[in-house]
Amino acid sequence: MKTEANIATISVPGDLDVLAAPALKRSLEGLIDGGCRRVVVNMANAGYVDSAGMGTIICELKHMRQEGGLISLVNVAPRVYRALALMRVMDFMPVSRAGVRRSVRELDPSVLPEWRRTFRVAAGQMAQVRGRVECLCEGLPLTADEVFDLTLAVGEALGNAVDHAGERGVLVTVAAYADRVVVDVADCGQGFSLGPDEELPEAAADAERGRGIKLMRMLADSVSISPKSTGEGSVTHLVKLFSNSVVAR
Q1: Domain limits at 18?
Q2: Rg of the chain's alpha carbons, rounded to an integer?
Q3: Which of 21, 49, 78, 108 is the most exposed place for a label (fewest CB within 10 A)?
Q4: What pTM value is reported for the model?
């Protein structure tokens, strides 16, 4: 299990059956009761899920929803995905199949956004910035869960910027295009570079940047970091794709 702020990841060690379900239930309840509001359950090692496993997932999802949070499943094997589909689990929570990731094409530089908003992160105002990003995204063709995830991803990017560069000089830009919303978090730190498909080395215990990037990649469709075009520092670039092409102004 890995945790960062109010986000956590859990790996199911094997089949999620009547014997394994109680351990998952205890882990999820401990996180929810401890204040965590976003849990990603890695199902890569689960080749089978029975009714007890599904019941645990649905029960704890309801528990989390009551607290205003979200649980999702990732790296779900094809047979398990089919079973979850038959039980209509996807109607209530995000479920991602193993090896399936949305392809994010690069935007043509000549394409202008439908709208763009840029604002500075003032001292002690990170919560207000997250709230502003959330409000802007609520007018876009994203589900409530997608807005929730993107807001958390932006919070991770803000946390990295403040940790490594301080709050002075941190800027957030939100831009809506026909098929996506793009959020850039710019700082004035020492600079860092990471391509959208570039793998990170395994994070050490004190390497919070690495863990934050991995979490952001679970929450957004594309995450990259590049040096600023002018001055010192870097820009964290987050992309969330729309399921349709209608953009609210």
Answers
A1: 2-97
A2: 19
A3: 108
A4: 0.76
